[in-house]
Amino acid sequence: MSEMKKVSNPIISGYLKAFAKSNEISDNLARDEHNLFEKFTNDIILKIYGNDTNADYEDMETGTAFGIDGVAIFVNDKMVTNIDDINYACQSTKKIEVEFIFTQTKVSQKFDRQEISDFLQGVNRFFNLEACEIKELRTAWENTKFLYSMSGKFKKHPKLSLFFVTLSPEKIQNDDVHMKAEINHGIENLRNKVMFDEKNICIEFLGLREIMDLYKKNTNNLEINFNLDKQPVPYPKDPTGRITSGYFGLINLNDLLVVLSDDINGQKKLRKGIFEDNIRDYLGSSEKFEVNADMKEQITSDKAHLFGLLNNGITIIADEVSIVTTEVTLTNYQIVNGCQTSNVIYECMSEITSNSIYIPIKLIGTTDEETKNAIIKATNSQTALKPEQLIALTKEQKSLEEYYSAKRTQNRFDLYYERRTEQYRNEDIQKTKIINIPFQIKATSALFLDLPHEVSGQYGKVEQSTRGQLFQNIKFLNSYYVSGLSWYRVETFIRNNEEGKKYRRARWHLIMLLKYILNTDEKIITSIDKQSEKLSYIIEKNMIDDIKSLKTIEMALSYIKDYLVSQGIDDISEDRKIFERKETTQGLIEFVQKANLIAK
Q: In terms of pTM, does the model score above 0.85?
């Protein structure tokens, strides 16, 4: 067995230990710090440079692929992992924006010319859409090929972002003519494919200091200081004490850009995470919603000074709002209304010539969830909202959050329900112990609705296919809790089990089979009702126990493997869509039911 590589820098080693703990990566796997550093890098790149809070670093992993350690494909800021995801994105909007992210991570303390050359060569080979040259990347390659077949829907050519990461204490040497020639050659080859937006082909070299900076940005409280040129008007004191502070004011466009953007390695990047509580996604300035195109035209015209008068402005909610004269400090803030305005302003940053544009702004300080919900609903009431956008604000979600809390006391097992994105950001809670709304819907749909083949895609698509079947009755909360618990157990098993990793795409089917293995009644349950609630307590008793849950999951995996053999499938990599088919789900159910009858 080859010696596992270690990270020499003690600070980075500490980051990796914290990462392994947060993601419950076993001590055995965490010993290989080179592999752990790859996972850590992919995770932090997704969080800093991506805008999909549900994107998972494990979906970036490439195994032993030549020159590439991570691949992520984004369509309209959402990470896509299969063709169904892409189809859903294309059907949801008139135009799509596409970005490809590639990573290569090394634990060496220098930037090696040959390793950089291999990285660029690997990316170039990946984009040969005539044939898949790197077999480990076949799924991502197939998704990419399909995306380009939909190029008529591109708003513009895709963006290509490359990240080469080492533990070098120094920046890459720009005066190394051979290194420079190698990089230029690789980038020029990519340009010559004429497949990308030439202005958005970029490669970033991240060393020790850059990794530390990214880590701090990711873990620190979200706090910003900016100036209001005009003295803000305070809102009268709230007698209930729920709103600690409120202000009306005008903010200059230049100061607003401080709120909207962050400096990442010398480049201004949109702070996309500040829109998570804005329940209406950014639509894009050239979409069928003409209001954004109109805003863009207006703010870049000779009538730009009227922009603030014709705009409803921006509403920001923060845990704390502190104002001294005209200097404002916001802690853990979210733009809950004005997402469209903010994104259009950021897009047009280089085209805006006027310095006299002011935008109306409301600043509200509160940590009270009910007050936040009321403000979000009120400020987004001017146009119809989708059901999946409103779901986080319902009373059922609050009840479920409280139910998870009660179960932590009862079971002495830490599991947290996150109905509002990053509500546990400042608490020392393992990432794996947090169940958010999308994963709750997916897990419940897999376990009790027999829809594991439907839930591997985007949240909006899954919500549509299950609408009217979930969150209809707060009497049956244990069914949801147990679904979340089952998701946690299966994800932990997959992450830390070498055999299980091969079947990651079958994890939703593993969750479904828990019901069929543990159900002592022959009646099939495919709804959330009294029957599912009764069964949920049986499943819960098994899943709470470390040994019993592992045994049950291993049994479920053996059923999947035996079923595939019965279908003449020895290698699941030969049929990458097998777990996305309804026929697979139905065949697996029948196989397990027959096996259970024989066992009885």
A: no
